[in-house]
Amino acid sequence: MHSGNEARDWLDAADVVRIRDGFARVAANADGFTADFYARLFELAPTTRALFPDDLTTQREKLKHMLVMLIGSLDRPLQLKPALAALGDRHRSYGVVKADFVVVGRALLDTLAAHLGDSFTPADRAAWADLYGRITAVMTSGTQRNPATAPALCTASG
Ligand code: HEM
To answer: Is residue 86 part of a domain?
Structure first.
């Protein structure tokens, strides 16, 4: 159920709870989760490996930090959307194209399924897929402004 303009065209409250519950369970082993995520991504789409630095340690930390901030802000889409649009602008500068988001989404959902096991229900998967689709839409739409001056969701990233 949506309340107020801010929440329009965003996840409903039940899905926010669903996503947060699942994330809390994978966050207990966040390092293992991000390591598995990249391993799965590079297995599904080996050409994406070249986009990333050889040493993924910092990248895994940044992803972990971003996920924590993202999941924490799910009920504040007005704050979240400009930060995601700026993240999308930076991704274009890394050479990421729209098609890459499809395989990254699959790697993310598969990693969640592997880490959550039977507790990852079809409704959970649908909620995460919905969230990922919304993030992709915002990230690939662009901010139409300088990413250096756009708001940052995650100060550790750059
Ligand atoms: C939900 C979608 C995504 C999220 C939340 C996300 C998150 C992040 C974060 C937090 C960073 C750190 C740098 C920064 O903040 O600018 C980053 C960098 C990066 N991401 Fe993503 N990302 C997403 C989708 C993708 C996709 C689809 C690709 C394509 C393979 C990708 C490839 C990269 C690359 C190549 C870097 C830079 C690595 C480097 O040179 O240090 N990301 N991402």
So the answer is: yes
Number of domains in the chain: 1
**How far, in Å, is the centroid of ligand 1 from the Cα of 5?**
29
Q: How far apart are CA 53 and CA 6, in angstroms?
A: 37
* pTM: predicted TM-score of the whole model, two decimal places: 0.88
80 is a domain residue: yes
Cβ-Cβ contacts under 8 Å for 16 (sequence gap 6 or more): 74, 75
Residue 57 lies in a domain: yes
Q: Which residues line ligand 1 (CB under 6 A)?
A: 48, 51-53, 59, 62-63, 66, 87, 90-91, 94, 96, 100-101, 104, 135, 154, 157-158
Expressed in percent and rounded to 5, the helix, strand and coil fractions of the chain are 70, 0, 30
CATH code for the domain in which residue 127 is found: 1.10.490.10
Ligand 1 geometric centre to CA of 4 (Å): 31
Residue 60 domain boundaries: 11-141
Per-residue pLDDT of the chain (158 residues; tens, 9 = 90+): 444 455 568 999 999 999 999 999 999 999 999 999 999 999 999 999 999 999 999 999 999 999 999 999 999 999 999 999 999 999 999 999 999 999 999 999 999 999 999 999 999 999 999 999 999 999 999 755 544 545 555 444 43
8 C-alpha vs ligand 1 centroid, how far in Å?
27
36 assigned to some structural domain: yes
